[in-house]
Amino acid sequence: MENEIHINNIKFWLNRNVIYCDICNDFDKNYSLEDIEDLFYEAISILSNGTYLPVIFNFRDLNTLLSIKLFRLLSNSSRIEDVVLSKVFLVKKLKHKILLSFCQMFCGSNVSNIIFKDSNLAIEYSSENYTVFNSLSCDG
Questions:
Q1: Taking CA 49 as the corner, what is the angle to CA 89 and CA 132, rounded to the nearest 5 degrees?
Q2: 85 CB contacts (<8 Å, ≥6 apart)?
Q3: pLDDT at 47
Q4: What value, to the nearest 5°, has the Cα angle with vertex 50 and ends 46 and 56?
Q5: How far is CA 5 from the centre of its chain?
Q6: Predicted TM-score (pTM) of this structure
Q7: Residue 118: what are its φ and ψ, rounded to 5°?
Q8: Tell me: the pLDDT tens digits for 81-122?
Q9: DSSP structural state of residue 100
Q10: How far apart (Å, rounded) are the C-alpha atoms in residues 86 and 88?
Q11: Are 113 and 107 contacting, i.e. CB atoms less than 8 angstroms apart?
Q12: pLDDT at 123 exceeding the cut of 90
């Protein structure tokens, strides 16, 4: 792993041009929504170092209510959109995928928000997205 940032019960790291974020169920006890957005923005900005990178948010350990709350915040955050290439949300259960997909219909995001149950597919999507973006950036 190239870089790691630990903040309470959240771990961010960079590996092969993808930022990963593991979130534990009780991370939000001491934070307002604005503080949570700031925390994610700062960590992603540090790891990306001015480069647009895809981010995989691991929601597998989150309960349903917290995953919806955090998804709505992260998927609609214009600050986070300014520093990422794409946002991938990794969930454990099909019902969480369906709920988040429903929430996604009402967000006006400029950056793609993709929801996966399979971590290998999430990593493959993120890596391909980065490769395509950089091949197009180099051609232009």
A1: 55
A2: 52, 53, 54, 111, 129, 130, 133
A3: 96
A4: 65
A5: 15
A6: 0.89
A7: -95, 120
A8: 999 999 999 999 999 998 888 877 766 556 678 999 999 999
A9: H
A10: 7
A11: yes
A12: yes
Domains by residue range for the chain, with CATH: 3-139 (3.30.750.24)
pLDDT of residue 109: 58
CA-CA distance, 75 to 43, in Å (whole number)? 16
Buried b (16+ CB within 10 A) or exposed e, 50-80: eebbbbbbbbbebeeebbbbbbbbbbbbeeb
Tokens of 109: 């995001």
Whether the CB-CB separation of 99 and 68 falls below 8 Å is answered with: yes
Q: pLDDT-based confidence at 1, cuts 50/70/90?
A: very low
